[in-house]
Amino acid sequence: MNAFFDIAVYWLIGIVALVVAYNFWKGKNKIISNGVESEGIVFDMVTRSGAYGGANHPVVRFLTRDDVWVTETYDIGSSITFLKRGQKVDVIYNPQNPKEFILKADSKLNLKLIPLLVSALAIFFLVFGLIKLIQLL
Hints:
With 137 residues, the protein is α+β, with helices and mostly antiparallel strands. The protein has one domain. It has two helices and five strands. Strands 3-2-1-4-5 form a five-stranded antiparallel β-sheet, covered by helices on one side. Strand 2 (53-63) and strand 3 (69-73) form a beta hairpin. Helix 1 (2-34) runs antiparallel to helix 2. The longest helix has 33 residues, at 2-34.
């Protein structure tokens, strides 16, 4: 009975990771497809603590096409950052909710790499759970 519980946990982790990766990709892809480009500036850098230490997140300020200033912390951070306070950046934002934005530089690599890595982790858990199930039968 305990082994079946372990298998269920592996599968649950795998499925949740796949759903998270898909939703991340879908949300960011929507911004890329339907978003509006603007030039922004790295207004500040903040460090957010996480399970694996701190990550630096740029606070970006940009002007929308409706002349509204947006100053928001970018949701993707890194322990190593190449962005500096005062640096100009290109952003793509959701015109319905400008607080949802991505850095244009991230639109090619990070926004594809992150879901790919999470999906690989999900597949690992799903396959590991399947191997455990086969071993039990």
